[in-house]
Write a structure and sequence with these properties.
The chain is mainly alpha-helical. The chain has a domain of 61 residues. It is found in: Mitochondrion matrix. Belongs to the complex I LYR family. SDHAF1 subfamily. Its main location: mitochondrion. This is Succinate dehydrogenase assembly factor 1, mitochondrial.
Length: 118
């Protein structure tokens, strides 16, 4: 087996440093492991993306080492109450508001009201 490249050594070193820095902070170790597992399938030839993620990890390490970080988390998009209740619509589509405000234009783009002023 060949020796690890310099970039591989840097990434492994960053991984160890992030785990050490997040040792006392709730959720940090799990988040670091999950992030590295998510990007483990990147091809070795995608050096630009690996270097970008390495720089991003370095910035996160600086934040973890600063005294201001007390925990580490991630933003997760949860399902809204309308999506859970109906369940019929496709994810990401707007629910049909039967009782909500209506569009004054019909499907052809013309006003629903007659133009004679009534």
């Amino acid at each position: 087996m060949s020796r690890p490249s310099r970039l591989q050594r840097q990434v492994l070193s960053l991984y160890r440093e992030l785990l050490r820095a997040g040792r006392g902070k709730p959720g940090a170790e799990a988040r670091v492991r999950a992030e590295f597992r998510q990007h483990a399938c990147l091809p070795r030839s995608d050096v630009l993306r690996i270097e970008y993620l390495y720089r991003r990890g370095r910035r996160q390490l600086q934040l973890l080492r600063s005294g201001h970080a007390t925990a580490m988390g991630a933003f997760v998009r949860l399902r809204g109450p309308t999506e859970e209740a109906s369940g019929a619509g496709a994810p990401g589509t707007q629910p049909d508001n039967a009782g909500g405000p209506r569009n004054p234009l019909n499907s052809t783009g013309s006003p629903e009201n007659p133009l004679d002023g009534r």
